[in-house]
Prior knowledge:
Largest sheet: 6 strands, antiparallel
Strand order of the largest sheet: 8-7-6-11-10-9
Structural class: alpha+beta
Order of helices and strands: HEEHHHEEEHEEHEHHEEEHEEHHH
Number of strands: 13
Shape: elongated
Mean pLDDT: 76
Distance between the termini: 155 Å
Amino acid sequence: MNDLPDEPLPAPRPVPRDDRPPLAEPPDSLEALAAENRRLRELLAAAQAQGRLYMFERDGETGQGRWDPRLFELLGLPRQDGVPSLQALNARVEPADLEPFLAEVERGHREPGVHAARFRYRHPDGRRLWLHSIWHSPERGRRALGLIIDDTAVMERAEQHGLARQQLDMLSRLVGLFAWRRDYEDDRFSVNEDVWRTTGGRRQGAGLSRDEFLAMVHPDDHAEEVTPERGRTLGDTPLVTELRFRPPGQSGWRTMLTRRVVQRDADGRVRGMLGVGVDVTDQVRERERHRQLLERFDLLVETTGVGVWTWDLDSGEQEWSGAMRAIYGLSHADELPGASVPDGASNAVLPEDRDRVTQALRLAREDPSRR
């Protein structure tokens, strides 16, 4: 007798299906994984070939780690001694950088994710390295995997640039060098501290407007302005000009010797104008006094009929005044007698005085104190 019930058996329960797309066949997946692995290794090798990237890993619980062999060389540590302890490494971090560095390391132990720290490292040979450490902590207290980036060359260049800038600023203050840049985009002038100090103004982040800058320049010198239209016609040769300027609230015009050059972008388009200037007011005044003195002297010589001549005993070059030429019966178009000492004297002096004058010229040439 059959003990099974007469009602039909329930239909079999369907096996749950995974709605995700099916994985590729195992051989294809392994090949794709191997190809991706090779690509990543090539990228890593290319990055490391630049000489700035070094890999490391360290277990947060045991402190044990593994280093890129080149990292030992970078830090000046013997490879045969193995990966040093954190304490040993910390001893070589610059004291000023140690506290923020340790704080980020401690944060990396507590918080999974990406962490980074910059610090200066004292190499055993006395050099100082600028290092940038970036690491990823996937899980609290577990292995940290990261990179050391050697920023030494970059930071040294930046440090040299900063030093050069400081020296330039110091030189600017010593010689009173004014420097400015005109941006044609917003038509404003960025100026250095000497301009602010000379003008008695307060430094403004936005610099000076065109009208504010030109207000300090003599109206007759406004024609020397390099407008954007004029700038596009200029080459790369500096434009040398004397400009008169007067700081706000001051009386009297001062003279500035300027050198300006257009600034272009990578496509050759004119973007602005760079300029430097030196206050040459005292030199210009001295030059003007000298010119006026010469004019008065020439007037005196011409009215009294005194002959004036100069003779460079080293080069033989000579200059004669109009009265001097008249004494010898020479016009302004005639050549001066003689081309060198003492021949010139023998051509211009009477025979009975020739020996005496020639001897005097010879003594003056041999002994500068007699000149």
